[in-house]
Amino acid sequence: MQKSIERIAGDSEGVSYEFPVFRFEGLRFDGSDKSASSAYLQAALHAGELPGVVAIDALMPMLEKAEAEGRIKGDITVVPQANPIGRAQYHFGEHQGRFHLGTRTNFNRGFPLLAAPDVKLLPDTTLGTADQRLKTRLLQLSLGHDIVLDLHCDDEGLAYLYVHASLWPAMADCAAAMGVDAVILWDEDTDGTFEGASITPYLNVPAVVARFDRRVATTVEYRGILDVDGVLAGADAEGLYRLLVARGVILDQALSTSGSFTGPNSFTGPNSFTGPNSFTGIVAPLENIDMMPAPRAGAVLYDVKPGDRVAKGALLATIVHAPGEADGRTQVLAPQAGIILTRRSRRIIRAGEDLLKLVGDRKSADARSGTLED
Ligand SMILES: [Zn+2]
């Protein structure tokens, strides 16, 4: 394993940012594994989203063990903390890791959407802003890998993946290996998420280059912002490891033959691994998601939590907008039947802000449901 330091020039003299990159080189000495899939993993592009960071921390010893035993077949690149700019942003004591304070741009928007997987097509950001330089560099680091995993988390939520429709159901084995609860399928990204920038270059190239049979690109939502937990991190690391074994990046005879992981920290929760190619969680198109805007500003009393199944018309939440007054409460009802995917971690809300994500059984009547919200 090799560690190197990436440096990103800041927006003023005397300011720069750095982050480490770890590379495991796949075995090629006998020439037999040239075709093994390669993998790129990054976490905390939204710099305050740490479940993926601790999952990578738990994964690294597993990768180092595999390397020591000569079981790494494909190149693996790991960026445990992808956003040193956002990591350093505090505003009046509160961490701000989602938007670049200098430009108000979401750190997971505005990635270049290339016409082909060729780093020569990347824009020159020398005279751009620091966040643009970071995005260009992250995309450059990831391009060319068969498997690209961008680890995020939601406010409060289930573990779920965003996956481009062209990769489904081919990626069902990955969802099963990772033990996530749900997969949300999307088909157009005009905002330039990292995931969108990872798959778009392959959409219009010949099938022999795109290789959708072995390609993986996903935004992983590891539950909620407070789910930074040793047990979950261990389970998530095992899920990532299983994915790497399932896709031939790492050789692990025990896993490959039994189809199940039996390590000491084996996760046995409701979303536990049930065998290869057997994803049994929720799969829904993005257009089925109802974002549920709050009708009033106030305090949120939730009647549902992530994972709950609701019927059409069920009470989702009550907004206390005029406490102590008659008619001071407003109820929010489910527009359709479905599963609660996420909800807010804070209980103060403005009118029009999203209360929760409901994965409906049908297409949402809300036009905003078509946007990638990671
Ligand atoms: Zn995020």
TrEMBL record:
InterPro entries: AstE_AspA_cat, N-alpha-Ac-DABA_deacetylase
UniProt entry keywords in alphabetical sequence: Hydrolase, Metal-binding, Zinc
Cofactor needs: Zn(2+)
Domain Succinylglutamate desuccinylase/Aspartoacylase catalytic: residue ranges: 38-198
Coiled-coil segments on the chain, per record: none
Domain of life: Bacteria
Record bears the keyword rRNA-binding: no
Keyword Hydrolase: yes
Name of the protein described by the UniProt record: Succinylglutamate desuccinylase/Aspartoacylase catalytic domain-containing protein
